[in-house]
Amino acid sequence: xxxxxxxxxxxxxISFKQCDLTDTTNFLKPEILQGxxxxxxxxxxxxxxxxxxxxxxNYGVSFVAADSYLTGMDNHRGHHTNPxxxxxxxxxxxREIVSNYKTAKEAADAMVxxxxxxxxxxxxxxxxxxxxxxxxxxxxxxxxxxxxxxxDTANYFASTNxxxxxxxxxxxxxxxxxxxxxxxxxxxxxxxxxQAGVENVLQDQYYGSxxxxxxxxxxxxxxxxxxxxxxxxxxMVVHNAEIKFGYQINGNPRxxxxxxxxxxxxxxxxxxx
Length: 273
Known about the structure:
30% strand
């Protein structure tokens, strides 16, 4: 399970992801890789998959994604939680978002085609660049691709692990956490749609050291919920011509400081942070 989202104000685009897993997983330090043409991109990776759990390139294109659970579905068996349970094709395609495309629209169009014709598992995806954000829900060939609004009253967006456009998503009685985390994220960002607000979201434990909080800990795991723990977080910022990102891995943002990297593409590819 994950909490993902974006904040945008005309000058800055901030996308973020909190990665929660049931099994202890080793997350790898991000590195700069060469993509198509003159594209360079940051690979945020983890062991046991060649794919990316988030990504960002030198054109400001970024992506974050999350499992989507369906009604009646086991609430901890998605392909993000257990990458071996799904085709590696989805993770390869995620990489292409930042390795092959220079705008969010181009990447979103490619993903719509992929979801329509190839990948049929439920998925939630948010692709952003400096000026546009596309939120995609997909399942069994049905694909909803929404260009998000950019107004004073709609300058943030968050998603957790249930569909809002496609019917058949998990219900509140089946999965309290996804609904409670979304409510908290939206409430915090409505009051503070900024980088500071995003950081507040990712460390939020309104429901204590429990799986119901955004910063998840399995110390308290109510009946019917899976024992998720937050294991990695990333914040990606495109501000005018400047690109930076902050990350913490193998911990949670309440006890693990972010490492911030500004202008990551100045030193060429092959660099690890």
